[in-house]
Design brief:
The complex is a heterodimer of chains A (about 325) and B (about 500). Chain A is mainly α and about 325 residues long. Chain A has a single domain, classed as ABC transporter involved in vitamin B12 uptake, BtuC, CATH 1.10.3470. In chain A, about 75% of the residues lie in helices and about 0% in strands. A two-stranded antiparallel ribbon of chain A has the order 1-2. Chain B folds into 3 domains: about 240 residues, P-loop containing nucleotide triphosphate hydrolases (Rossmann fold, 3-Layer(aba) Sandwich), CATH 3.40.50; about 170 residues, Rossmann fold; about 70 residues, no CATH class. A 6-stranded mixed β-sheet of chain B has the order 6-7-8-3-9-10, with helices on both faces. Chain B has a 6-stranded mixed β-sheet with strand order 16-19-20-13-21-22, sandwiched between helices. A 4-stranded antiparallel β-sheet of chain B has the order 2-1-4-5, covered by helices on one side. In chain B, strand 17 and strand 18 form a beta hairpin. The chains are: A mainly alpha (about 325), B alpha/beta (about 500). Chains A and B meet through helix 1, helix 9 and helix 10 of A and helix 10, helix 11 and strand 18 of B.
């Protein structure tokens, strides 16, 4: 086989780069285990971490597609809040079957995504601007829809959606896993995923290659929006209320997870498992620092430093590879 | 002191592969020294060593009789060496004068410490540089509004304004018209008179015979020969570069020309394409000649659905087709090998395989799921068929040489099994060997009965490979020539025919 060595060499180079993130992840875990063996490594705590990672991880999966396509979506936090408020409205005990609030949350998320997608694709508005607009406006809509106060009195089954277990595994973690698998499958195995990479890599070439760039962009933002709606519904279920102010800043956590995962902000490149590691890393650090008793104010500084550091490593390793 | 520059015994390896092996280059002051060789021969690497971008593993660089060491591009400029890169990197949203003085802006007197830029002085200085060279560009024009050729001229002026003793020009004419080549050559001759040495890299042999005083030929990282130009002839030069005899540079296959396959009627696109109609036949290679800006690429973009504002009819095999997006053109089996492979042809962030299959990915998938083993097989097949030199199909396309990148673009379109293939400047910036492969491929496709359109600014090329040539000028077709009527004079006559046939 010709080029066998080339394949190996390429994979090795790539692996080293991705190992960098993984090694950092393992080092942090080892560090926390050493510092606080009892509290950190307890199974209940590890489950807690995955639970903490899951909502951000679900948002990050959508964000990953958007960023690979060359865009950004700032509206996911607000969308999650609106979806949560509306899901709570439709989940009062004895009113509607459980699927109604879930479907409504997904539809609301998809609707915001479609608006973002049309704005980017047909309006040719920079993604940062259009999603900044919807982020602000949708927050307003959720405040109106909730009358400015959280919507309480949700049914037991609705509560169970986020707090339940499947074979001892928290359902939140199960959803996260399923959405990771779907997103990974889309990116690596489907025509749609391949086109998302191509649009992010070279939009003009994508168009010349016959790709309907506008349609693809609308689909990407719709996917991110739907996941935001789903995450918002889970958030409402977990907190047993639909809060109009929930999810603020979540878009930045999702972006952070994607970036820590080594996905290029310029679009066109990045691996799905980077995002998973990124989301877990943020949760591990938050949890670990809580256990160590670091004040949440200092935690923000550490989180910020880690984001910058992750990108720095990424840039350095890339420039060495080329 | 006979030489302004002597590079001797230069060695350079990248990850164990020797790319330069004991190479010498000696350049006299006031001469144009052509550096020739196929892609991958080591020309760029040698020049990057001279610019201090790479460090040589062994060898000496002697400037004006003194051994020197060049630590980087800034240091090279300080030592009066400057380079005009093949791929231009101007700041598009700055004005011309700001680009010329980038990194060494003229500061306001007295307030210099504060760092206020003296725009007026930079514009005045630029204007006087342009005046001296007879270049007609406004210093305050925004670079984005200039043509590629004009940007090239700006870069040349910039290099000269660095008061260089040695100027390296890497394919300076790859994007400019014959008329502008004249302007460039005039500049080069002026520079020679001032004692400036020019290292001139080009694949265009005609040009080299026009402008060069000496020629150094590299092949596979080794020095093949160096001599004065008058001791070379065309065949000797090609043989030295390629390492084998090439009997004819333009192999023209015999293809039977059949029925009309595509008819374009009254195509209009603003002022760029005006009322163009023509017929393309099966097995025919239709050349489109004209000056840069004559509307040739714009016409093809209109046909291919890349220009929404276009009006006109396209009929393929007798059926009218509505083409509003490239996907419509692709569906009717038209392929478009665009002019600028980096901008419109390739996704540089993806692998060879993903670039080859992107247009046909639907056919390699079921219900939207990619059949990866079929994708692998198909891409291996085309890598083999076109002789793409790559480590594997997973290699990033960015790491390939220009000629091999162009073959990836060809593979991607051949995979769609097109009936009509549009080539826009298919051999720009690639070496003689790869060019010949592409000419042979065009001949083979014509023999298969496909209709082929080739836009080319290289007169010998378009005359060498076409069965028929349409000449465009200012958006219109101003002339049509059959193969027996091809002469440079006839084509040039039509290409600058405004006021005559065109108006």
């Amino acid at each position: 086989m010709k080029g066998e060595s080339g394949i190996k060499k390429g994979k090795l180079g790539e692996n080293i780069r991705e190992l960098g993130i993984l090694i950092a992840f393992i080092v942090i875990i080892a560090f926390l285990m050493a510092l606080s063996p009892d509290a950190f490594a307890r199974p209940s705590n590890l489950i807690n971490i995955v639970k903490q990672a899951s909502i951000n991880g679900i948002l990050a999966c959508g964000m990953m597609l958007v960023i690979i396509s060359g865009g950004i979506d700032l509206s996911v936090g607000s969308t999650a809040a609106l979806a949560g408020v509306m899901a709570a409205h439709f989940s009062h005990p004895g009113e509607y079957p459980l699927f109604v609030p879930i479907v409504i949350a997904l539809i609301i998320g998809a609707a915001v995504g479609v608006v973002n997608g049309i704005g980017v694709a047909y309006g040719e508005i920079p993604p940062f601007i259009i999603t900044l607009g919807t982020m602000t406006a949708v927050r307003g809509v959720s405040l109106i829809a909730s009358g400015g106060a959280p919507v309480f009195n949700v049914s037991k089954p609705f509560e169970y959606v986020a707090s339940g277990f499947l074979f001892g595994i928290p359902l939140l973690a199960v959803y996260f896993l399923i959405i990771v698998l779907i997103s990974a499958f889309i990116l690596t195995r489907t025509v749609f995923g391949r086109r998302v990479y191509t649009i992010g890599g070279n939009e003009t070439a994508a168009k010349v290659s016959g790709i309907n760039v506008r349609k693809m962009k609308i689909m990407v933002y719709t996917y991110a929006g739907m996941l935001a709606g789903f995450a918002g519904m889970l958030l409402a279920s977990r907190t047993v209320s639909g809060s109009p102010t929930a999810g603020s800043g979540y878009e930045l956590d999702a972006i952070a997870a994607v970036i820590i995962g080594g996905i290029s902000m310029a679009g066109g490149a990045g691996k799905w498992y980077g995002t998973v590691i990124g989301a877990l890393m943020i949760a591990v650090i938050g949890n670990g620092l809580d256990i160590l008793g670091v004040s949440s104010h200092y935690q923000l500084i550490i989180k910020g430093a880690i984001i910058v550091f992750a990108v720095l490593i990424d840039i350095k390793s890339k420039s060495r590879n080329v | 002191m006979q030489y302004v520059l002597e590079m001797t015994g230069i060695d350079k390896s990248f990850s164990g592969v020797k790319v330069l092996d004991q190479v010498d280059l000696r350049v006299k002051p006031g001469e144009v020294h052509a550096l020739m060789g196929e892609n991958g021969a080591g020309k760029s690497t040698l020049m990057k060593i001279l610019m201090g971008i790479y460090k040589a593993d062994a060898g000496h660089i002697v400037l004006n009789g003194h051994e020197t060491h060049i630590s980087g591009p800034r240091d090279a400029i300080a030592q009066k060496i400057s380079m005009i890169h093949q791929e231009l990197n101007p700041v598009l949203d700055m004005e011309v004068s700001e680009n010329i003085f980038i990194g060494r802006e003229i500061r306001k007197k007295g307030l210099g410490k504060v760092g206020l830029v003296d725009r007026a002085a930079m514009r005045a200085e630029t204007a006087s540089l342009f005046d001296a060279m007879g270049i007609d560009i406004k210093p305050e024009e925004i670079v984005r509004r200039l043509s590629v050729a004009q940007i090239q001229l700006v870069e040349i002026v910039k290099a000269i304004s660095l008061s260089a003793g040695i100027i390296i020009m890497d394919e300076p004419t790859s994007a400019i018209t014959d008329r502008e080549v004249e302007v460039l050559f005039r500049q080069i001759r002026q520079l020679k008179e001032q004692g400036v040495a020019i290292i001139y890299i080009s694949h265009k042999i005609d040009e080299i015979f026009q402008i060069a005083d000496s020629i150094t030929v590299l092949r596979d990282g080794r020095l093949v020969g160096t001599d004065e130009r008058r001791n070379f002839d065309r065949n000797r030069l090609i043989t030295m570069m390629v390492g084998r005899e090439i009997s004819e540079v333009y192999p023209k296959g015999e293809a039977t020309i059949g029925e009309p396959i595509m008819e374009v009627r009254n195509m209009n696109r603003g002022r760029r394409v005006r009322d163009v109609s023509f017929i393309l036949r099966e097995g025919e290679v239709l050349g489109i000649a004209g000056l840069v800006g004559a509307g040739r690429s714009e016409l093809m973009e209109s046909i291919f659905g890349m220009a929404p504002g276009s009006r006109g009819e396209v009929a393929v095999k007798g059926r009218n087709i509505r083409i509003r997006h490239p996907k419509d053109a692709i569906r009717t089996k038209i392929a478009m090998i665009t002019e600028d492979r980096k901008r419109t042809g390739l996704n540089l962030k993806a692998s060879v395989e993903h670039n080859i299959t992107i247009v046909s990915i639907d056919k390699l998938a079921k219900f939207g799921f990619i059949d990866q083993s079929r994708e692998g097989k198909v891409s291996e097949d085309y890598i083999g068929r076109l002789g793409i030199r790559t480590n594997s199909r997973k290699t990033m396309v960015q790491t390939l040489s220009g000629g091999n990148q162009q073959k990836v673009v060809l593979a991607k379109w051949l995979l769609t099994e097109p009936d009509i293939i549009i080539f826009d400047e298919p051999t720009r910036g690639i070496d003689v060997g790869a060019k010949r492969d592409i000419y042979l491929l065009i001949g083979e496709l014509a023999r298969q009965g496909k209709g082929i359109i080739v836009i080319s600014s290289e007169m010998p090329e378009v005359m060498g490979i076409s069965d028929r040539i349409l000449v465009m000028c200012e958006g219109r077709i101003t002339g049509e020539l059959m193969r027996s009527e091809f002469t440079q004079e006839a084509i040039m006559g039509f290409a600058s025919a405004m006021g005559g046939a065109g108006a």
